[in-house]
């Protein structure tokens, strides 16, 4: 079976080192175990690093340690990703105030990843978002991407 290429967006990291909501933390810890054992290939981005850098200490240091520990492949924010994110925003799929959320999805799409993994149930992990994003992707010549919570991605 093909190894999934995933993009855990910023909300995922807080459930490992910060917020300890049991339901989210357990599934998220299982996801990082799957990254560690090589069952999934995880990617991050300079946008995730920028957002994590805004956190308070000592949480910020813990978050960056997590990135180094699991050796996530870092992707740059490209003009291509910015343009695709803008299409999501212009279409109203992601609200303007949540521009970083659109950018996370676009980064994953232009880099041919399989899944955006998120605990952001407000703007990212929604049927409306999945359908809208994949409609824009198809019209723009990109492949379909899945958007899921960690619970949907981790093996049983």
Question: What are the defining features of this structure?
Answer:
156 residues; alpha/beta; Rossmann fold; 5-stranded parallel beta sheet; 54% helix
Short description:
The chain is an alpha/beta fold and 156 residues long. It is built from eight helices and five strands.
Question: What can you tell me about this protein's structure?
Answer:
This protein is α/β, with parallel strands linked by helices and 156 residues long. The protein has one domain: 5'-nuclease (Rossmann fold, 3-Layer(aba) Sandwich), CATH 3.40.50.1010. It is built from 8 helices and 5 strands, in the order βααβααβααβαβα. The chain has helices at 10-17, 22-36, 46-52, 59-70, 79-90, 99-110, 127-140, 150-153; strands spanning 4-8, 40-45, 73-75, 115-117, 146-148. Strands 3-2-1-4-5 form a 5-stranded parallel beta sheet, with helices on both faces. Strand 4, helix 7 and strand 5 form a beta-alpha-beta unit. Helix 1 (10-17) crosses helix 2 and helix 5 (79-90) packs across helix 6. The protein is globular and about 40 Å long. The model has no long low-confidence stretch (mean pLDDT 91).
Class by alpha and beta content = alpha/beta
The secondary-structure element order is: EHHEHHEHHEHEH
Determine the CATH superfamily: 5'-nuclease
Instruction: Please identify, by name, the CATH architecture.
Output: 3-Layer(aba) Sandwich
Number of beta strands: 5
**Mean pLDDT rating:** 91
The outline comes out as: globular
| Highest CATH level, the class | Alpha Beta
Termini distance?
15 Å
Query: How much helical structure, as a percent, in the residues?
Result: 40-55%
In total, how many domains does the architecture comprise?
A: 1
Tell me which oligomeric state these chains represent.
Answer: single chain
Radius of gyration: 15 Å
Low-confidence stretches: none
């Amino acid at each position: 079976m093909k190894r999934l290429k995933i993009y855990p967006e910023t909300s995922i990291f807080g459930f490992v080192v910060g917020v300890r909501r049991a339901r989210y933390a357990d599934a998220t810890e299982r996801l990082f175990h799957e990254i560690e054992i090589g069952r999934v290939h995880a990617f991050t981005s300079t946008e995730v690093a920028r957002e994590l850098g805004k956190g308070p200490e000592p949480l910020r240091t813990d978050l960056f340690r997590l990135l180094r520990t699991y050796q996530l492949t870092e992707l740059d924010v490209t003009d291509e990703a910015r343009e695709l994110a803008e299409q999501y925003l212009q279409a109203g799929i992601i609200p303007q105030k949540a521009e970083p959320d659109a950018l996370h999805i676009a980064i994953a799409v232009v880099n041919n990843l399989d899944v955006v993994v998120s605990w952001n149930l407000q703007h990212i992990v929604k049927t409306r978002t999945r359908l809208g994003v994949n409609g824009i992707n198809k019209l723009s010549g990109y492949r379909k991407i899945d958007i899921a919570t960690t619970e949907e991605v981790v093996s049983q």
